[in-house]
Amino acid sequence: MSDDITADAGEHTDESTEESFKAPATQEELDRIIQGRLDRERKRFSDYDDIKAKAAKYAELEEANKTEAQKTADRLAAAEKRATELEAKALRAEVAAAKGVPAALLTGSTAEELEAAADALIAFRGEQKPAGPSSSSLSRVNASSDLGADARSILGF
Questions:
Q1: Structure pTM?
Q2: How many domains does the chain have?
Q3: Structural domain that includes position 102
Q4: Could you tell me where the DSSP H helices lie in the chain?
């Protein structure tokens, strides 16, 4: 392929040195020039599908040629990874349940890190003040059980 590229480049440089550039005079001439360029590009990549199929076949053969020990090692690595993830999830849930915080908010990978994160959440939650109006008239309305009577007293009935 590299020979084609250098040959094409050499042809173009030879033409450009022998004669100066002439713009195409008609649309048909421009279309012919463009079609020629497209044909050369398509020719360069015509074997792409064959190479892709060969690569897929090679990957398939490589997988088939793995020894049973390699396949077992792959399965073992996947199982160990899954077990590690489940242990971390269980530890996070255990700490969350013990501290009374949502497990999704805990960060860390060890029990100490998770407990520290839970303690920080508890401290943060303890510092929060309830949001909402503190007007005495609103508290009087909220404390009353008869909403109809409250509405009549506000409207003056």
A1: 0.39
A2: 1
A3: 88-126
A4: 2-18, 27-44, 48-64, 68-99, 111-127, 136-143, 147-155
